[in-house]
Amino acid sequence: MILTFSQGRIVANQHELVIRLEGTGKVTLQARADDIRLLRQPNIITATGSGVQWSIHLDDDAQLQALSDCMGIAIDSHHN
Q1: Beta-bridge partners for 20
Q2: Rounded CA gap, 80 and 69, in Å?
Q3: Closest C-alpha to 39, from 67, 16, 11
Q4: DSSP label at 74?
Q5: 31, 17 in Cβ contact below 8 A?
Q6: N or C: which end of the chain has fewer CB within 10 A?
Q7: What is the pTM (predicted TM-score) of this model?
Q8: Which of 6, 5, 3 is nearest to 17 (CA)?
Q9: What's residue 30's pLDDT?
Q10: Across 1-80, where does the E strand assignment appear?
Q11: How confident is the model at residue 79 (pLDDT cuts 50, 70, 90)?
Q12: What is the distance between the alpha carbons of residues 77 and 79, in angstroms, rounded to a whole number?
């Protein structure tokens, strides 16, 4: 699945997630599906694993739901 959002593009499947941010930095974030957490309110993707941690805000709930459906990851309404 390829999802375009305000900060760039997300390429996702059941095994991994790759986020390519637009702009001069050309930043790419990548994580295995096992390291991904989807959070609602606000709509955030977080990745934690192997000494790496990052998070990024999505534009809306529909994008979060699409990632959840594609990757088979439940959306967590509670975040610590």
Answers
A1: 9, 28
A2: 23
A3: 67
A4: P
A5: yes
A6: C
A7: 0.90
A8: 3
A9: 95
A10: 2-5, 8-12, 16-21, 28-32, 36-39, 44-49, 52-57, 75-76
A11: low
A12: 7
